[in-house]
Amino acid sequence: MRTAYIDGMPREQLTAYVLGGGGVLGSSEVGMVRALAEAGLRPDLVLGTSIGALNGAFIAADPGVEGAERLAAVWEAVLLEGVFLDNPMRQAARVARYRTHLLSNAPLRHVLRRYLPVARFEDLEVSFQCVAACIEDASGRWFTAGDLADPVVASCSVPGLFPAVRIEGRHYLDGGLVHSIPVGRALALGATRIFVLQVGRVEQPLSPPTRPWEVATVAFEIARRHRFVHEMESVPDDVELHVLPSGATSSPNISIGHARASRMRERMDAARAATAAYLAALA
Q1: Contact at 8 Å (CB) between 243 and 201?
Q2: Cβ neighbours of residue 227 under 8 Å, at least 6 residues apart?
Q3: Is residue 72 over pLDDT 60?
Q4: Cβ–Cβ under 8 Å, residues 275 and 32
């Protein structure tokens, strides 16, 4: 039995939840979280990137059923706060003024400060880490301590949609640029059982582009997925790995059109049912 380490303490078994990116499609992860909690599962470690950082922070604050239900309520707040949507006139004015992004990250900060029950990594019930991409040196930085808001917002800052976040003199963008689904991080930290929470994109193969605008989206999706594919191929045989099903019929590369309450709820419900069935089959 290999030994895993978390917070410097050795453990023979370490269960990690790995939450990938996907913008508004991240509502699928909420359904998976609820199914996991209802099945009595609990993580020792939570790793998140992009929207998975937001979801992951709430899971780490309360990994039980009540916490899962709170996260579902937070997604309702995401809609009300306009985190992913904004008045078109405001968008145009913001681009004219800042030239780099369409949306403010203020609503996302507000959601975190209002609904997340703790403010620091150290106060979470379960160990949590999130990643963001550093502009200055093109590296991925894992945040593990201190204030939660800036790292989580940075990890969610999709280029062109949100502004970069300045932390300790450097600027950070979406963690999905460097780790779309950070299975490798879980392995590096000694996880012996990994549950991958993803938005459904990796369940469907890519197709060659047939229209000019598809070239960029397909290229970006290859860049986003290739590290995950490599890390999945290198998972040791003694690690128990579960890629949870999304239950979604489609998971588009450009997902802003799914930022509607009805579509988010549909994805939550589908992922909850599909994951519950998957977990029941393991028993």
Answers
A1: no
A2: 178, 179, 180, 184
A3: yes
A4: yes
Q: 160-204: per-residue pLDDT in tens?
A: 888 999 999 999 999 999 999 999 999 999 999 999 999 988 988
Q: How far apart are CA 32 and CA 106, in angstroms?
A: 27
Of 173, 253, 258, 250, nearest to 219 by C-alpha is: 253
Is the whole model's pTM more than 0.85, yes or no? yes
3-state SS record for 136-170: CCCCEEEECCCECHHHHHHHCCCECCECCEEECCE
Query: Considering all CA atoms of the chain, what is the largest pairwise distance in Å, rounded to the nearest integer?
Result: 59
CB burial of 10-46 (b: ≥16 within 10 Å; e: otherwise) equals: ebeebbbbbbbbbbbbbbbbbbbbbbbbeeebebbbb
Three-state SS string across 12-29, please?
CCCEEEEECCCHHHHHHH
Task: Give the pairing type, strands 15-19 and 45-49.
Answer: parallel
Q: Which of 108, 114, 55, 109 lies closest to 82, judged by CA? A: 108
Structure tokens belonging to residue 70: 């709170």
C-beta separation of 146 from 109 below 8 A: no
Instruction: Tell me the β-bridge partners of 133.
Output: 140, 173
- CA dihedral (9, 32, 140, 203) in degrees, to 10, reads 130
Q: Rounded to whole angstroms, how far apart are CA atoms 34 and 138?
A: 35
Q: What is d(CA 90, CA 96) in angstroms, rounded to the nearest whole number?
A: 10
Find the DSSP H helices in the chain: 27-38, 51-61, 65-81, 88-98, 106-115, 149-155, 183-188, 212-233, 261-282
User: How far is the C-alpha of 65 from the C-alpha of 38, rounded, in Å?
Assistant: 6
Residues, the chain: 283
Is the separation of the CB atoms in 157 and 126 below 8 Å? no
